[in-house]
Amino acid sequence: MTSALARRGLRASVTLAFTLGALALSAFLAFGTYFSARHFLVDQRERTAMRQAFTDGALVRESLQTSGAQVSEVLGSLSPPAGAVIYVHRNGQWYSSALDSAGPELTADVQPVVADGSVGVGWTGATDPSAVVVGVPLPAVDAEYYEVAVAEELDRTLRTLSIALAVFAGLTTIGGAIVGRTAGRRVLAPLEEVTSAAVRVSAGDLTTHLGTTQDPDLAALVGSFNHMVDALRERIEQDARFAADVSHELRTPVTTLTTSLSLLERSPDLSPRSSEAVRLMADELARFRRALEDLLALGRLDAGGHETEPVRTGADELVRQALRAWGQPYDHVEVDGPNVAVRVDRVQMLRVLTNLFRNAELHGGGLTGVTIVAGDDVVDLRVQDRGPGIPAADRDRIFERFARAGGQRAGTGSGLGLSIVERTVRNHGGDVWCSERPGGGAVFVVRLPIDGAETP
Amino acid sequence: MTRVLVLEDDAGLRASLRMVLEDEGYDVVEAAEVDDALHAVAGPSSVDLMLVDLMLGGMDGFSFIHRARPRTEAPIVVVSARDGVEDIVTALEAGADDYVTKPFLVDEVKARLRALLRRPSLGTASPREEADVVVLDAEEGPLVLDRGAATLARGSDQIHLTNTEFRLLSVLADNLGRVLSRGALLEHVWDQGFFGDERIVDVHVRRLRKKLETEPSSPTILVTVRGLGYRLDAR
Questions:
Q1: How large is the average pLDDT for residues A244-259?
Q2: Residue A421: per-residue pLDDT
Q3: Which residues of chain B have pLDDT under 50?
Q4: Is B227 in CB contact (< 8 Å) with chain A?
Q5: pLDDT tens-digit series, residues A67-125
Q6: Mean pLDDT within A156-180
Q7: Is B86 on the interface with A (CB under 8 A)?
């Protein structure tokens, strides 16, 4: 049942329940009405037939008594009521007002009772529609009088009644289905609202709230849902704030450390052992400082802010600037297609490219080239290296924070470089991914929307 | 000797900065509070450069810049743990010449100090055949920039320029009528390369216009060439 309900859906189940309920109720009422009406009408019809038969039977008895006339003559002088046929059974002989010989067959059910000297009433299905048969014994003339009346009117009435009741039951069932559907929708409307709110929340909109309701049955759900969203947002903000606060608190101490260490590094009086130790410290501190800068940059990106006003710049100009800033003796930029402009936060986007260059240098065996491929709406900046490439399974994971290629523990970067790349590009309405280069090596593709606006 | 004021509330960083700057040959004045720093600025031997931490809540640092700026043209470099856009722009508009955010590399700070301390008249690589005296606006004033004497005057009125404003104006005057990109100005005036923040240029141009232009909101001397940079026109 549960699984059937789950398959069908709640609304369909409610509708079905209402439909079946309406059908059962209307069918019950229709049958009840039909049978009680039928009982009453049949009873009425039998009484009428009996009254008629008594009257006619008395007439036949009197006619036979007075003149000793033949039965057929007496029947001929009688005018039976419309739709009725009179039969007389006398001395084993059957006489009929309609000159047919169906008497024995039609009266078969009633005959034994009449033969015993009682009045018999019954129905025969031999006619169409069925007929009421009344038998009256006429002991004075030693005969049995039968009147067979076809119940045409009764039949018509009952048929009309049954059609009316069936139509009524059908309409009631349809009405039940409609009410069920409406009720189902009404009942499920708040649930749908909750569903769409939950979808918005999972998409990251943590300001979503359900409207307050006066309905005591729903108030608890609405209250706890809103409470859940608030708690979730608070939790996420707390996490982000914690990382930002920690990084912020580390700024001054790290600056003091690097500044002081730069004094030590230049000191001429250090023993070789000491200067070796100072060099180690300086290297580690440089890493630490980079990690801190990356964390701070990620914090700013998470807050969604730009660091400088986005400006319109040529894609190739951006790449060349990044290469110059990167400071490697390398200037191989290939422009495939028209040279297009993008609108970027220059500082952030230069950081994206230098992060990719550093990644190529650290993990990719060195940068081999940057290709710019312009499409209709987007431009791809493809940063290629000559390394072993990234296994397909890791290509999404490497953009996560603190993920390292090939599960490498002792990386030389902060583990945040590619996260910064990903976050920055997304903030610019673009996309970044990693794929394989036909000739071997990895290629990181930064896809940015083209700034189609005319040069201001 | 060049005197450098270090306003920094963190004792450790203040001490290490003092030592590094002393190694560079500067005479360092330390201050942990705004009042001490203002004393040093107003003192008998004035300072040539100020390294200012925005400090707790930023208000101390901002109030120092506001109060020190009228008393000295010496460059102010903001050192800050705050990297919000508003903090940076507020500090620059209050009169700071440059800013660095923590954690910084001390070599970078030293390079910036050197750039800001360069003599204004030696600030450009352009040949000296350019006239030392440039008339920027002949109609009203006249507005005259004398690079030899490092002065700007409208008629008989001297116009007060900070060292950085003067250097910026000199570089633009060397390239009179030519457009200079923000990047080029960053490189020439502040010695900063590709990662410099172009807002430094914008804020300084705004400050300069208030002093040069009769109508700073619709400039006619220091004009913006949209999408390219700035140009100095003589009238």
A1: 88
A2: 93
A3: 121-129
A4: yes
A5: 667 777 777 777 777 778 888 888 888 888 777 777 777 788 888 888 888 888 888 88
A6: 92
A7: no
Does the distance separating the beta carbons of B194 and A262 come in below 8 Å?
no
Q: Please identify among residues 164-193 of chain B the ones whose CB lies closer than 8 Å to any CB of chain A.
A: 193
**CATH architecture, range A2-156:** 2-Layer Sandwich (3.30)
pLDDT score of A213 more than 60: yes
- Domain B120-232 sits in CATH 1.10.10.10: yes
Cβ B194–A321 below 8 Å, yes or no?
Answer: yes
Nearest residue in chain A measured CA to CA from B110: A259
What is the per-residue pLDDT across A26-52, written as a single tens digit (0 to 9) for each?
A: 999 999 999 999 999 999 989 988 888
Q: Which among A251, A290, A323, A451 is the top mutation candidate for probing chain B, defined by the most B β-carbons within 10 Å of its own β-carbon? A: A251
From the CA of A219, how many Å to the nearest CA of chain B?
A: 42
**Band of residue A3 on the pLDDT scale cut at 50, 70, 90:** low
What's the CATH code, domain A237-302? Answer: 1.10.287
Q: What is the reported pLDDT for A401?
A: 81
Using the beta-carbon criterion (under 8 Å), do A325 and B81 form an inter-chain contact? no
ipTM score for this prediction: 0.79
CB contact (8 A) between residue A347 and residue B81: no
Considering only CB atoms, B20 lies closest to which of A254, A263, A312, namely: A263
User: Nearest residue on chain B to A264, judged by CA atoms?
Assistant: B20
pTM assigned to the model: 0.62
Which residues in chain A have Cβ-Cβ distances shorter than 8 Å to B12? 252-253, 256, 260
Domain with CATH 1.10.287 in chain A: 237-302
The domain limits of chain B are 3-117, 120-232
Å between A216 CA and nearest CA of chain B: 47
Q: Calculate how close chain A gets to B55, using CA atoms only, in Å.
A: 11
Contact list in A for residue B83 (CB cut-off 8 A) is: 296, 300, 307
Shortest Cα distance, chain A CAs vs residue B171, angstroms: 23
What's the pLDDT score for residue A412? 61
Q: Name the segment(s) of chain A with CATH classification 3.30.450.
A: 2-156
* Fold of the domain built from segment(s) A311-449: Heat Shock Protein 90 (3.30.565)
Give tens-digit pLDDT for A405-438.
Answer: 555 544 567 788 899 999 999 989 999 999 888 7
For the domain B3-117, what is the CATH code? 3.40.50.2300
Residue of A nearest to B85 (CA): A307
SS (H, E, C) chain A: CHHHHHHHCHHHHHHHHHHHHHHHHHHHHHHHHHHHHHHHHHHHHHHHHHHHHHHHHHHHHHHHHHHCCCHHHHHHHCCCCCCEEEEEEECCEEEECCCCCCHHHHCCCCHHHHHCCCCEEEEECCCCCCEEEEEEEEHHHCEEEEEEEECHHHHHHHHHHHHHHHHHHHHHHHHHHHHHHHHHHHHHHHHHHHHHHHHHHHCCCCCCCCCCCCCHHHHHHHHHHHHHHHHHHHHHHHHHHHHHHHHHHHHHHHHHHHHHHHHHHHCCCCCHHHHHHHHHHHHHHHHHHHHHHHHHHHHHHHCCCCCCCCEEEEHHHHHHHHHHHHCCCCCCEEEECCCCEEEECHHHHHHHHHHHHHHHHHHCCCEEEEEEEECCCEEEEEEEECCCCCCHHHCCHHHCCCCCHHHCCCCCCCCCHHHHHHHHHHHCCCEEEEEECCCCCEEEEEEEECCCCCCC
Give A59's pLDDT tier (boundaries 50, 70, 90). Answer: confident
CB within 8 Å: A256 and B104:
no
User: Higher pLDDT residue, A322 or B125?
Assistant: A322
